[in-house]
Amino acid sequence: MTLSASRFSAYVMFFVAAVEFVVGAVLLTMSTVESLSSAGTTLMIVGGALLLSGVIMVLVGVRFLKKYAEGRRLQENGVAGTAQVLQARQTGVLINNQPQVALDLRVTCPGHGTYDVRRKEVVPMLLLSRVTSGLPLTVLVDPQDREKLLVDWSATPSMAADPMAALRALGVPASPPPAPAPDPAAAELLQQQILATGVPGVARVLSATFIGALDQQGRPVYDVQLHVQIDGRAPFAGGVQVGVPLERVSVMQQGGEIPIKADPHDPSKFAADWNRLPTS
C-alpha cells in the first residue's frame, strides 16, 4: 500500500465511524422513548453495535495514520539499503486491489550490516515479478531500529518478466485450460446470460496482444493474460482471447482493469461488462 493510500484509507475509516456514531446515537436516543418500548431493546442493541463498530473504525484509521506517518519519516530520514527476497508467499488478502505478500528479506544497510527480517507488504500488481525474480529491492531503514523499514517501490523498477510466472510463483492458481470455442451465436448467448445473472468481479490485465484478427462483430481480438478477482472467491490467473469494442481498447494494457461478471457455478466462465467502463 502506498503512503497516500494509507492516509486515504484512514480518512475513509474516520468518515464511516462518524456516520456510525451519529446513527448509533440516534438509535440509542430513540430506544429511550417509552412509546417505542417494545422495540427499545432492538434499537439499543443496534445503536450500541454501531457505536462499537465506530470505535473500531477509529482505531483502524489511527493505525493507518501511524503507518503513513512512519512511512513519511522513513522517506525523510531512512538509510537507503537493499533487500534480497529469500521467500515470497501470497496471503490471499487484497488491499486496494493489490495483493498482500509475506516476504522473507535479507537486508543490507549501512550502520546495520546484513540481517534477515520477515514482513507483509502490499505489492503493486505490476511489480509482482520483482519479488519473485531474486533481484534486490530498494529499502529505507530506520537508523535507530533496523526492524522498521519501508520498501521503496517507486525506486524499484518494474520488469518485463512474465507476470503470470510471478503469480504462479506466489501460489495463485491458474484457471483451467479453456474449452473449445463454441458456435459464435451460442457464445454470445452465454455471454449475455452471464452478464444478466453473474457475480461481479474485476479482471486485471497482465499482458495483452492483438492477434491481428477480428471477431464476428468486427471487434479486434486480443490474447490476454488476466488476474481475476470475483466477489467472495479466491483470485486466479489465466488466459483468454476476447473481442474488444474499439472504444474500449485503451484498457488492453498492463494494469488495465476490466469489470466482469462470472458464472456463479463456474467462475472460470466470465464475461467482460464493457458497459461499466467509460469510453476512451
Would you kindly provide a written description of the structure presented here, covering whatever features stand out?
The protein is α+β, with helices and mostly antiparallel strands and 280 residues long. The protein folds into 3 domains: 3-76; 78-159; 184-276, no CATH class. It is built from 5 helices and 10 strands; from the N terminus they run ααβββαββααβββββ. The protein has helices spanning 3-31, 37-77, 128-132, 163-169, 184-197; strands at 79-95, 98-109, 113-122, 137-141, 149-151, 199-214, 220-230, 236-243, 257-262, 270-272. The strands form 2 sheets. A 5-stranded antiparallel sheet has the order 3-2-1-4-5. A 5-stranded antiparallel sheet has the order 8-7-6-9-10, sandwiched between helices. A hairpin with a 5-residue loop joins β6 (199-214) and β7 (220-230). The longest helix is centred in the N-terminal third of the chain and has 41 residues, at 37-77. It starts with a helix and ends in an 8-residue tail after the last strand. The mean pLDDT is 79.
